[in-house]
Design brief:
Chains A, B: Its cofactor is Mg(2+). Chains A, B: It catalyses: isopentenyl diphosphate + (2E)-geranyl diphosphate = (2E,6E)-farnesyl diphosphate + diphosphate. Chains A, B: This is Farnesyl diphosphate synthase. Chains A, B: Pfam families: polyprenyl_synt (PF00348). The structure is a homodimer of 292-residue chains. Chain A is mostly helical. The first copy, chain A, has a single domain (5-289), classed as Farnesyl Diphosphate Synthase (Orthogonal Bundle), CATH 1.10.600. The first copy, chain A, contains 14 helices and 2 strands. The first copy, chain A, has a two-stranded antiparallel sheet. In chain A, strand 1 (96-97) and strand 2 form a beta hairpin. Chain A is globular and about 50 Å long. The N and C termini of chain A lie close together (8 Å). Chains A and B meet through helix 2, helix 6, helix 7 and helix 8 of A and helix 2, helix 6, helix 7 and helix 8 of B.
């Protein structure tokens, strides 16, 4: 993904400090190997897209972004746990993640399961200890838990596993539903959490939800296209894994050309949703453009 | 464990309705196999000790126990997830749990990992959606997350795994610290959550914390004695597993006699802590007596 100068400057303002914050928190685990395994995956980097959405939505809607590290860390903790568990031998069995050995390869399977469990649980300790008022923290907890749990991300992962290698490929509707859960729900939670720390009208809330939904789909289509077209070095994980594993993807369903068109359409929808906001949203426009 | 008539009547008043509530919530998962796997382990029963502590502490401290199903369900969700993940092949590799096939045997490993992840995440959706005021829900979220996460239960599980089969057995102090995390922290969270929905003085809060700490230790010693002395049928899980697996237990450290004495001592401490409360605590006395 390319970043414009504007979004890059915004990210540079928030993300390095966030990473420090996350690592300092993880180092307080009461068992050293657990702290190491949590820190290992938190430090592995990645785009920090979900925290970036939290900060950028909050900034767009006029909130103070200097008080958001607990909230941004919480959603990145949840994302990081999900990668660790997804990579496990019983799941995607992936040895490589973000250009490094995946957690269970670097440590072992038991440690990776526990590091994931700890990151997921600690996410809620982070939100409950955030500097926002209690009513805001309760709303954030609910958004994060609903987006990540049995009605969100985990359900999507189960849909993916249930469909992988099946002789009947998913229909487009089923594929959209799977990804709306697997990746969309947590991206939606990020956007909602950013809006929740600001004061947002119902109309803006709706526009942001529509933005998040279109962006989530676009993000997944871009991910599927990358998996089919880029090298392992470029991706930081094993390329072509989707096809090898018999995964249902936008590329397997629509081909590269069809997927590219679908990506452009969702990026356009995300853009149109942002245009409905009562305020200009250059940072969010930049984040959409990163998918192009 | 034997239950007196009084605690049995109290449990009969709350636990069957709680089980219905938990299963109804799990059935709303957005993927049927995930809902099945979550329900399977929730329905497998067990003593519901943590919910019972929530209800009993709340009742003792004068709170309305008719509004506690979200809170009690949340802690039982966390306990149930921990059993599913602990039983996994990479962890304790246990085929039997509560007299039934463990989750990954009944379903498969990927499903069991995801069912555990979903139960853990949904616990926080339950707490954030509880009928208590926002300030109370935030405190409950924090107690549950801290008790279950990298400074509580998960750290204890990691300590256990790190020490299992090691040529150097744990000292008594290390064993106490491990169990204070592995089982004690969530029992302490149950007691604190029951107190948090009531209005409790600082002195009562301290007495309840001391009660929870002693009770948690007593509970673990009883569990270790049971593992060494009871049959698999009586336990509902594989007996003698601790010794076979080279686990550090109170029995391996102190022998059966020493462990029995240590149990009596902790039960006495729990009783003395309850006597310091500003109110009589017959239900909690009954729960302590269940360990005898």
């Amino acid at each position: 993904m390319n970043q414009s100068k504007r979004i890059k400057a915004f990210a540079d303002e928030h993300i390095p400090a966030l990473t420090e914050f996350m690592l300092a928190y993880a180092r307080q685990a009461h068992q050293p190997r657990l702290a190491d395994a949590m820190s290992y995956s938190l430090a592995a980097g990645g785009k920090r897209l979900r925290p970036l959405l939290v900060y950028a939505v909050a900034a767009t809607m006029g909130a103070d972004t200097t008080q958001l590290d607990h909230v941004a860390a919480a959603i990145e903790y949840v994302h990081t746990y999900s990668l660790i568990h997804d990579d496990l031998p019983a799941m995607d069995d992936a040895d490589l993640r973000r250009g490094h050995a995946s957690n269970h390869v670097q440590f072992d399977e038991a440690t990776a399961i526990l590091a994931g469990d700890a990151l997921l649980t600690d996410a809620f300790a982070l939100v409950s200890g955030a500097p926002q008022p209690a009513t805001v923290r309760v709303a954030l907890t609910s958004q994060l838990a609903v987006g990540a749990g049995s009605r969100g991300m985990v359900a999507g992962q189960m849909m993916d596993i249930a469909a992988t290698g099946s002789s009947t490929p998913l229909t487009r509707g089923q594929l959209v539903r799977m990804h709306a859960h697997k990746t969309g729900a947590l991206l939606l939670a990020a956007v909602r959490m950013g809006a929740t720390v600001a004061t947002v009208s119902d109309a803006d809330d709706e526009a942001l939800d529509d933005f998040a939904t279109a962006f989530g789909l676009a993000f997944q289509i871009r991910d599927d296209i990358n998996d089919a077209t880029k090298s392992s070095t470029e991706l930081g994980k094993t390329a072509g894994h989707d096809e090898t594993a018999g995964k249902n993807t936008y590329v397997s369903l629509l081909g590269i050309d069809g997927a590219t068109k679908a990506l452009a359409k969702q990026m356009r929808s995300a853009h149109l949703a942002l245009e409905r906001l009562s305020v200009p949203a250059p940072l969010l426009e930049d984040i959409v453009a990163m998918l192009g």
